[in-house]
Design goal:
This protein folds into 6 domains: 2-143, Rossmann fold, CATH 3.40.50; 179-205 and 459-574, Topoisomerase I, domain 2 (Orthogonal Bundle), CATH 1.10.460.10; 210-265 and 392-453, Topoisomerase I, domain 3; 271-387, Topoisomerase I, domain 4 (Orthogonal Bundle), CATH 1.10.290; 587-655, no CATH class; 668-731, no CATH class. The relative contact order is 0.09. The mean pLDDT is 92. The longest helix is centred in the N-terminal third of the chain and has 33 residues, at 145-177. The strands form 9 sheets. The chain has a 6-stranded mixed β-sheet, sandwiched between helices. A 4-stranded antiparallel β-sheet has the order 13-12-11-14. A 4-stranded antiparallel β-sheet has the order 18-19-20-21. The chain is built from 20 helices and 31 strands. It is of the alpha+beta class.
Length: 738
Amino acid sequence: MILIVAEKPKVALKIASALGKPEKKKRNNAPYYVVGDIVVAPAVGHLYHLKNAVPFRDYPVFQVEWVPTDVAYAKSYVKNLQALAKDADEFVNACDYDVEGSVIGYNALRFACKADISQSKRMKYSTLTAPELAGAFENLEPPGVAMIDAGLARHELDWIWGMNVSKALSSSLKTAVGQFKLLSAGRVQTPTLVFLDKREREIADFIPEPYWEVLIEFQKDGITVQAKYPRRLKTEEEAQKIYQDCLNNRGVVTDLDQKKRTRAPPIPMDLGLLQSECWKNFKYTPQSTQKLAQGLYEMGVISYPRTASQKLPEKLDFKRILKGLSGNSQYTTFASEVMQTRLVSTQGRKDDPAHPAIHPTGEQPTKLTAPMQKVYDLIVKRFFAGFADPSIYQSTKVEITVGEHPFYAQGNVTMKEGWLRYYREYAKISEEPLPELRKGEELEVTPQVLSKMTKPPPRYNPASAVKMMEKLGIGTKATRAQIIDILYERGYIREKQMEVTPLGTKTVEALTKDCPQIVSVRLTRHFEKEMDEIYEGKKDKDVVITEAQKELTEIFEKFKEKEGEIGKIIYEGLKETLDQENVVGTCPQCGAKLRIIRSRKTKKRFVGCSGYPTCTHSYPLPQKGKVAPTEEVCQCGAPIVKISGRKYCLNPECESHAQNQEIVGVCPECGKELKLIYSKKTGKRFVGCSGYPKCTKSYPLPQRGNITFLNEKCECGAPLIILGKKKEKQCIDPTHAT
């Protein structure tokens, strides 16, 4: 019997289906599939994780071990593999073909199955299509020891680095102020925070300077054109002089340069490019994009997304993919057009020996969520665009002289769509036509002076931060998005335009001053390179881990000397961050700060005055939902906060709450108005009768998504609604048929 271990249940079913007609079986709610003498059984991601092998009382600790995950449902999958392994003669790791999948499969085989790894095999595939999976099984590879070692080294290095540095930071806080708080740090996380904080300091240190621009505006053929003076002017006097010279003067076209230019088709996408495109077009975070792409991959409709390749090899059989896509009415025309070309795709610079660039497989997707559909459509149209001709546009640059002063305008008009036919909506290229002009032509112009200020560099957003991590060579394609999410979760950064909190700033300040090795991009990049060399078979895993332990030992010797000083600086940032998060406004009675407080007795949260006990003013809060200050004050004098994204006056007696209760229908029981209500206790929305408490009729509502109330009622008397962007009407009563 051959036992194939897949990474997830969905993938196990696809592999089994590619090898024949599978018979589904279950053991303790863990599925597996039988195809003749082949059994395909899934893990559910990591069934084993690292843990300190000795009590963690002081740092550094380097003794670690792999132990079964404590996630309850995963235990049945381990037991399933243990039982199946007893009858197995051969073992195959069919988890994702990367270092992470190698570790997942390796641990499942060595711990649960007790398999001899040297005798096991590896399935290599980049899509979950039946032909590729069947081919991968027919051409099994050796277990891939170098890839496994690279994955094990990364896990161990990240664990000993992250756990020890986190312990050191937490200990420093306790040493300094006697307060314990679990602080987080990591081999990649901390250097990432450093470059985010560097940008924050650049913004803080930036001194805006005034400058002036002079424009002229003219109209011709129904087109309004603005031409700019070629220099920013440092004084208003200089700008006003040019303005006065141009006032009541005519412009003359003194130069006209028209050229045909080309825009090359876009290159195939690696994960970083996909994340960047999805942020630009949909504002999806890199982590969200990665999850959506993983879902599409598991459906079998795109290739493996965690790739560093920007190349599509010819062996992919483009005709088969295009033929499959033509079966989708949305892409029939485009696919047919592309099939008439030479089917030579553009190629990017980067390559990945494990997987090609992200591309559609040609399989038909079913039941895609709206976000998945957007990502899928972008991937498909990017694929089409890679086979198309360059886009040709006419670039026109015109010089218009007014008196002695030259002004310039530029316009671009697409002459041949080329690849834009397929990817225009995602390329964000705008047309800027100029009217027909000829040299020597005179124009009526209107001058303008604009007063402006220089702007600081922009903050990073999640996509540009991931791009910078890639540029610096820290993290991996699969982990960078997760690192950004961790920085948010740990309170080091906030907002989409990533603002470093005082805790983040003070952590960087303390470590840069007293322990710079921990925040060193150079050191992080060094170990990234060493792990790449393990992957390539050039370095030994144990040698790299030993080097890291030695480096960390030296770092922590110096850290302990400065532990108290580091802790004091971090405490300043922690206190300021907590103040910013918990202060929601000013007390209307005494002018002191209003803070979010959690009762020691009831554990419930509320807003209370920091002037207590002199001032006892307070407001209740919903017990669920994130509370954020807005710096706005209601007409009643109470602060306005955001609770789960919705603005909310803290005063429960405020008239604004009644005004916000939208009338959505008529109660079928008592005939009074039905209203959309947000619970003061939980913050959740529902529809309730205005006759309460005499009439208790109410209907639950989904807590996410837009709801459109239609002023129509179902045959049962309840209102009809539309959820999200769906077109179907449905009854608000969940017990009633839609």
